[in-house]
Amino acid sequence: MKEIKINTEFIKLDSFLKWCGEFSQGSDAKMFILDGLIKVNGEVELRRGRKLRPGDVVEFEKESYKII
Question: Where are the beta strands (DSSP E) in the chain?
């Protein structure tokens, strides 16, 4: 599991996926989110604007990211 530090109170899911380097464009992240391929804290998340806070875990393909 990779730990990703954010410098704000929260970050939106689509922005986080770009921040951690999984996607270079927000439109790509949006499509993967809407297709149900992203999990947050073990559950499929379909909202690209989902607010992520430290302690949340995002899973994509076989990679996990913990927000710190």
Answer: 2-4, 11-12, 38-40, 43-44, 51-52, 57-60, 63-67
Return the CATH number at 23. Answer: 3.10.290.10
Token reading at 33: 């989110």
Residue type, 23: F
**Is the pLDDT score of 27 beyond 90?**
no
Structural contact between residues 67 and 58, judged by C-beta atoms closer than 8 angstroms: yes
Q: Is the confidence at residue 12, as pLDDT, over 90?
A: yes
Number of domains into which the chain is organized:
1
The pTM for the full model equals 0.89
Beta strands 63-67 and 2-4 are parallel
d(CA 27, CA 68): 25
Polymer length of the chain: 68
